[in-house]
Design a protein that fits this description.
This protein is of the alpha+beta class. It has two domains: 1-71, S-adenosyl-L-methionine-dependent methyltransferases; 96-157, no CATH class. Helix content is 37%, strand content 24%. The protein has four helices and four strands; from the N terminus they run ββββαααα. The protein has helices at residues 73-95, 110-127, 134-143, 145-151, and strands spanning 7-13, 16-25, 39-49, 56-64. The protein has a four-stranded antiparallel sheet with strand order 1-2-3-4, with helices on one face. The radius of gyration is 21 Å and the shape is elongated. The termini are far apart.
């Protein structure tokens, strides 16, 4: 069964044009053995450079507990895009400035404790108004102890 595109978005940025099309359906809900399924969806992403060259296409399938009444196809596409903001805002920061992927801490509670400390550091910086350039802010805090203490609410004289 083929469904017509229900919602399409086109965006331009970072030297490319990206077209995202989402198709949603409830037709499979009675056949899926998955608890609380509300809709299934198919997202097709087509990316080209600004001249329309080097096209790349990928298709992702998914399901959600959100029903048609609770979430339209355009909202589902927006939620899907929002998922990547989590990846970009937290995971990338942990992977690159903290170099978490190469961490040698692997046993016991060590990995969880270090992840918690990294998250606290990132959270404090963001709470302090630093939304971008986290690596630069971390370096700044490493040599400016007054600013570091100020982020956690301690004022040094």
């Amino acid at each position: 069964m083929i469904f017509p595109p229900q919602h399409t978005e086109v965006s331009k940025g970072h030297g490319r044009i990206e077209t995202r099309t989402i198709q949603t359906s409830t037709a499979l809900n009675d056949y899926l053995r998955f608890p609380h399924v509300g809709q299934v969806f198919r997202i097709k992403r087509r990316v080209t450079n600004l001249r329309g060259e080097k096209p790349r296409e990928e298709i992702a399938y998914g399901l959600t507990s959100l029903t048609e009444e609770r979430s339209s196809s355009s909202e589902l596409l927006c939620y899907n895009r929002g998922h990547w903001s989590i990846e970009n805002e937290l995971h990338w920061v942990r992977d690159v400035p903290f170099d978490e992927d190469r961490s040698r801490i692997r046993i016991g509670n060590g990995p969880q404790v270090m992840a918690s400390l990294r998250n606290i550091s990132i959270g404090l910086l963001r709470r302090g108004g630093y939304r971008h350039k986290i690596a630069k802010r971390l370096r700044h805090c490493s040599w400016n102890h007054k600013k570091t203490f100020r982020l956690i609410g301690i004022e040094l004289r």
